[in-house]
Amino acid sequence: MKKHSLNFTNISFILFFGILSVSCFSQNDSAWKTLSKLTYKKAYDALLGYKVDVPIFSNEVKALEGKSITLRGYVIPTDGFKSHKEFVFSAFPYNMCFFCGAAGPETVIEVLASEPIKYTSEAIYIKGILVLNDKDPNKLMYGIKNAVKVNN
Question: pTM, whole model, 2 decimals?
Answer without folding.
Answer: 0.76
